[in-house]
TrEMBL record:
<keyword id="KW-0408">Iron</keyword>
<feature type="domain" description="Fe2OG dioxygenase">
    <location>
        <begin position="211"/>
        <end position="314"/>
    </location>
</feature>
<keyword id="KW-0479">Metal-binding</keyword>
<dbReference type="GO" id="GO:0046872">
    <property type="term" value="F:metal ion binding"/>
</dbReference>
<dbReference type="GO" id="GO:0002238">
    <property type="term" value="P:response to molecule of fungal origin"/>
</dbReference>
<dbReference type="Pfam" id="PF14226">
    <property type="entry name" value="DIOX_N"/>
</dbReference>
<dbReference type="InterPro" id="IPR044861">
    <property type="entry name" value="IPNS-like_FE2OG_OXY"/>
</dbReference>
<dbReference type="InterPro" id="IPR005123">
    <property type="entry name" value="Oxoglu/Fe-dep_dioxygenase_dom"/>
</dbReference>
<dbReference type="Pfam" id="PF03171">
    <property type="entry name" value="2OG-FeII_Oxy"/>
</dbReference>
<dbReference type="GO" id="GO:0016706">
    <property type="term" value="F:2-oxoglutarate-dependent dioxygenase activity"/>
</dbReference>
<dbReference type="InterPro" id="IPR026992">
    <property type="entry name" value="DIOX_N"/>
</dbReference>
<dbReference type="InterPro" id="IPR027443">
    <property type="entry name" value="IPNS-like_sf"/>
</dbReference>
<keyword id="KW-0847">Vitamin C</keyword>
<dbReference type="GO" id="GO:0031418">
    <property type="term" value="F:L-ascorbic acid binding"/>
</dbReference>
<keyword id="KW-0560">Oxidoreductase</keyword>
<comment type="similarity">
    <text>Belongs to the iron/ascorbate-dependent oxidoreductase family.</text>
</comment>
<dbReference type="GO" id="GO:0009805">
    <property type="term" value="P:coumarin biosynthetic process"/>
</dbReference>
Length: 370
């Protein structure tokens, strides 16, 4: 830890650049057999002391919703209610029997792992930074130069919509699987958004009308084994900015969700998919659905943790270029909790991750003096 205290900011900048320019990623560091992590990965004591505190493991952690009887008139309202309750109280749930074949889940995880396990020179061709909204980007720590401390993961980010990448721009080792996964993840998200719409008392197709899935990124993350998992993080605590996120993970644990004052472990459920609400959904639902803090611990096991995270957001902005709580959800009893926000504010928040942790939600919350 002494290194972190004595490192000057210019030394730190040099080290960040050296790591970035090596394009070796965290996977490269992990493979090199180091027994101590470079100081750029050391997190401040406030972050580290919170790692041990109030972690609870209860059952699978977050609610599990079985979608197998979705088309039965008897079961559907119960499923709508389970999802509404989970999205309001936890902001996270796991779906099972969602219709995506287990073979597709397994192949997608294997393909992302295979990408990250390629020789460094092969991956380096895709290594870049600060390319947002389109294309394919392999990188380590998207916010490397903005965050307080680097995290123990690398990622391959592919924007699948509104402008899908050319097939030849997707790394061949995972090309077919990523394209196939995107179709399945979108289908699951369509179903979940219909149920979430019904849960708000809206038409099932409301979020589709808002083009909720038209800006879409698939991010394949690797969390390599870390020699000092108590000194760093896999990903620091954050909320996701968009509408919803669909998360597929392998069986190596690490994801934690904040529930009340506790950090709750999310147990990977074989065949399950994790769904979480983003800031945008919290705002347009006028706080009915919650975008909840989550984080990933640095990987203490000796196997890679793999997650494939698909972020959903809309492309269609209302004529005025602003959004806010949906008018149909407001009444004298339920006044707007948030002010309207602009596309610019949304993107400023989206890309400021690491700069400051204040979310868009905090910025536009209406405070009442009583
Ligand atoms: O890898 C995970 O399990 C979570 C990743 C995550 O929260 C994110 O990329 O926003
Ligand atoms: Fe996240």
């Amino acid at each position: 830890m002494a290194a972190a205290v004595t490192t000057t900011s210019s030394d730190r900048m040099e080290q960040l650049k050296e790591f970035d320019e090596s394009k070796m990623g965290v996977k490269g560091l992990s493979d090199s057999g180091i027994s101590t992590i470079p100081s750029i990965f050391l997190h401040p004591p406030e972050t580290l002391s919170d790692l041990k505190s109030s972690t609870t493991s209860c059952g699978t952690g977050i609610p599990v919703v079985d979608l197998s009887n979705l088309h039965s008139d008897f079961h559907r309202p119960k499923i709508v209610e389970q999802i509404r309750e989970a999205a309001s109280s936890w902001g996270f749930f796991q779906v099972v029997n969602h219709g995506v074949p287990v073979s597709v889940l397994d192949e997608t995880i294997a393909a992302i792992k295979a990408f990250h396990e390629q020789p460094g020179e092969e991956k380096a061709k895709y290594y870049k930074r600060d390319q947002e909204g389109h294309g394919v980007m392999y990188s380590s720590n998207n916010d490397l130069y903005r965050s307080q401390a680097a995290c123990w993961h690398d990622s391959l980010q592919l924007w699948m919509s509104p402008q899908p990448p050319k097939a030849e721009d997707i790394p061949e080792v995972c090309r077919r699987q990523v394209v196939e996964w995107d179709v399945h993840a979108k289908k699951v998200a369509d179903t979940v958004m219909e149920l979430l719409s019904l849960g708000l008392g809206l038409e099932a197709g409301k979020f589709k009308e808002l083009t909720f899935s038209d800006a879409r990124a698939v991010v394949g993350i690797i969390y390599p084994p870390c020699p000092q998992p108590d000194l760093t993080m896999g990903i620091t605590s954050h909320t996701d900015p968009g509408i919803i996120t669909v998360l597929l993970q392998n069986q190596v644990p690490g994801l934690q969700v904040k529930h009340g004052d506790a950090w709750v472990d999310v147990k990977p459920l074989p065949g399950g998919l994790i769904i979480n609400m983003g800031d945008f959904l919290q705002i347009v639902s006028n706080g009915e659905y919650r975008s909840v803090q989550h984080r990933v611990l640095a990987n203490a096991s000796n196997e890679h943790r793999i997650s494939i995270v698909t972020f959903f957001n809309l492309t269609k902005w209302r004529e005025l270029g602003t959004y806010g709580p949906l008018p149909e959800l407001l009444s004298p009893d339920k006044p707007a909790l948030y002010r309207d926000f602009t596309l610019q504010q949304f993107y400023d928040n989206f890309y400021s991750k690491g700069l400051d942790s204040k979310s868009l939600i905090e910025r536009i919350k209406i405070t009442t003096c009583s």
